[in-house]
Amino acid sequence: MKTTDTLTIGELAARAGMATSALRYYEQRGLLPSVRSSGGHRLYARSALRRVAFVRAAQAVGLTLEEIQAALAGLPASRTPTAADWERLSRQWQPMLDARIAAMQRLRDQLASCIGCGCLSLKRCRLYNPEDTAAVRGTGPRYLLGDRSADVVAEAAARKPR
User: Fold this and answer.
1) pTM over 0.70
2) Which of 49, 78, 105, 112 has the most CB atoms around its CB within 10 Å?
3) Using CA atoms, how far apart are residues 139 and 106, in angstroms rounded to an integer?
4) Confidence tier at 112 by pLDDT (50, 70, 90)
């Protein structure tokens, strides 16, 4: 068994249980640093295993690669996250994750009535967005994200010139 301080991309992929293409993508996105051998091959520090584990764990809880990259950029000297880093970052992510969980619960609770009612009518559907009035509140399915149609209508009425 090899005992050097570096791993080739193939060795890292095998140890991490990932495709080499995913590791190259992580590297391209600035999530995983490497150095090049004299022959131009990628070499990774052994600590890259922990960094890959950090990225995959963060993805598993629903973070985007952009959010993960921002977290990693905040570490001193681009070092590998420690258990204390994970604890601190996970506390910072909790409000965002709580909001996502709440949105998913609203979606779950409204999905059956939306699809299950069978009306397929834009005039009767309680999630209908006439004239895209909810667009001022942002992108996405505004009513499924928790916006109330009464609030959207009131805001639209307030914006109309008199």
Assistant:
1) no
2) 49
3) 17
4) low
Distance, CA of 80 to CA of 32 (rounded, Å): 9
Q: What is the DSSP letter of 32?
A: S
**Tell me, what's the pLDDT at 1?**
47
| CA separation for the pair 117, 98 (Å, rounded) | 29
CB neighbours of residue 160 within 10 Å: 6
- What is the pLDDT, as a whole number, of residue 131? 61
Question: What CA–CA distance (Å, rounded) separates 49 from 156?
Answer: 52
pLDDT value for 15: 94
Residue 136: DSSP 8-state: G
Which domains does the chain possess? 1-81 (1.10.1660.10), 96-162 (no CATH)
pLDDT per residue over 74-88, tens digit each? 887 667 788 898 888
Q: For residue 81, how many other CB atoms are within 10 A of its CB? A: 22
